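pls design
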C-alpha cells in the first residue's frame, strides 16, 4: 500500500486534469474511458485498504477462460434460456473452485437441500456461505451412500 497509494492518487489526479481539459470532446472514446475510471475511483482503490483484496482480477479471468474456449459446445443449447442456464451453472462451478469447494459435492448438497431450506435464508446456499454452514454436514448422493 505504501508504494501503491501515491501512484493511484497521481493517476486519478491525472484523470481529473484530462477530464477538465476543454480541448477534448465529451464524445471522444478516451474521454469516455477516463469518465468510467473516474466514476469508479472508490471501487478501483479498494485494494489499498484491504490487504486480502488482489490488485487485479487476472485469477478470475483465467477461471472464466474455459467458457469462451467451449463456446462451440454451448452453441447448440437450443434456446437462449438454455444458454443462460449453462452460464449460471458455469459461474457456480467457477465460484466453487475459487472457494476451494468440490463443485460436485456443492451441487449435490444444494439440490437436495433447496426444497426445505427457508427462502429467507437462501443466501446461505451461495458457495461461500455454504462452505461456512454446511460443509461439515453436507447431504450425500444415493451413489455415495451406497459406496460408503
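designed seq:
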Amino acid at each position: 500500500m505504501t508504494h501503491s497509494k501515491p501512484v493511484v492518487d497521481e493517476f486519478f489526479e491525472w484523470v481529473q486534469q484530462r477530464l477538465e481539459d476543454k480541448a477534448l470532446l465529451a464524445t471522444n472514446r478516451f474521454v469516455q474511458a477516463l469518465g468510467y475510471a473516474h466514476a469508479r475511483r472508490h471501487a478501483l482503490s479498494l485494494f489499498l485498504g484491504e490487504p486480502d483484496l488482489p490488485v487485479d482480477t487476472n485469477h478470475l479471468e483465467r477461471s472464466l477462460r474455459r467458457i469462451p474456449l467451449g463456446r462451440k459446445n454451448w452453441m447448440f443449447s437450443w434456446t437462449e434460456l438454455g444458454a443462460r442456464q449453462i452460464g449460471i451453472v458455469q459461474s457456480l462451478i467457477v465460484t466453487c473452485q475459487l472457494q476451494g469447494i468440490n463443485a460436485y459435492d456443492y451441487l449435490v448438497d444444494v439440490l437436495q437441500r433447496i426444497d426445505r431450506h427457508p427462502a429467507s435464508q437462501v443466501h446461505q446456499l451461495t458457495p461461500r456461505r455454504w462452505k461456512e454452514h454446511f460443509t461439515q454436514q453436507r447431504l450425500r448422493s444415493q451413489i455415495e451412500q451406497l459406496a460408503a
